[in-house]
Amino acid sequence: MWKTINNGGRDGAYWTEGEGKAVILIHGFAEDHSVWEHQTAFLRNHYRVLVPDLPGTGRSQLTTPLSIESMAEFIYEILVAEAISQVTLIGHSMGGYVALAFAEKYPHLLEGLGLFSSTAKPDSEEKKEGRQKSIRMISQYGLESFFRQMLPSMFAADFRTRQAPMIENYIQQALTSGTTEGAIAYYEAMMARPDRTEVLKTIKVPVLFFIGKEDQAVPVDNALSQVIMPAVASIHLFDQVGHMGLLEVYEESNLILHHFVAFCQHSS
Predict the structure, then answer these.
(1) Domain containing 56: what range?
(2) Domain tally, the chain
């Protein structure tokens, strides 16, 4: 069911279903809650699953100024509204940045942290230049033109060939749920985020790393350099998978998340 809370004077929406221990799945850039549809449908049979639309996406209104930290506060407000004292937090891509910001401020609320095709490292200067170029493209050519050029590259080459209709559906969903203003705000928030590798080095709960070898957004070397940082890590490295493993290998992703959440709960 959909629920809405006051998020800094704006509507903040999230979907929730299932019972038991709490799991929050946080979507990334150019996505909304529905990117987790396979995982939600699977995990709801075992857990209480909450899937927000981040501010500026879908049913959640954009808050200004938007930052990774303000989005983490939105996640915290969901926990308060739901009276949840312990949660396993899983973030895809930009959602991982939000999960890390939450972990930095509210470590006592975590049972586990999942970085799904994400990184604790800040943007390099090259990455920032790329995001600035993307902002210029969005402003000049519009969101649809930009998404059609950018989003297919989020998938592995073989998957792009075999699953063109799924990728088109992904693009359509991005266009339905996103706005030009929101996309630019997300890029600016991502560029401004700090290095959070220290969070991984000091975290007391298990950390999940899902890594696709063909991920162009978070290169495999970037991700692998972080897996030794936490005291306890669950590491999953996939051949022929890009940035969108939660769709590309969704059945494997479902099981990985299920086992990770169960492990975190037994460890706490």
Answers:
(1) 2-267
(2) 1
Beta bridge partners of 237: 211
Quick one: tokens of 35? Answer: 């990117």
In 4-152, which residue ranges form alpha helices assigned H by DSSP? 37-43, 68-82, 94-105, 125-141, 143-150
Q: Each residue of 186-232: pLDDT tens digit?
A: 999 999 999 999 999 999 999 999 999 999 999 999 999 999 999 99
Residue 16 has pLDDT above 90, yes or no: yes
How far CA 150 is from CA of 71, 131, 174, in Å, comes to 24, 12, 12
pLDDT at 251: 98
At residue 267 the predicted structure's pLDDT band, cuts being 50, 70 and 90, is confident
Report whether 59 contacts 78 (CB < 8 A).
no
Q: Please identify which residue in the block is written with the tokens 């929730």.
A: 16
How many CB atoms sit inside 10 A of residue 145's CB?
Answer: 12
Q: What is the CATH number of the domain that holds 130?
A: 3.40.50.1820
Burial status of residue 53 (CB atoms within 10 A of its CB: 0-12, 13-18, 19 or more): buried
Cα angle value 134/102/227 (rounded, 5°): 80
| Angstrom distance (rounded) from CA 235 to CA 87 | 20
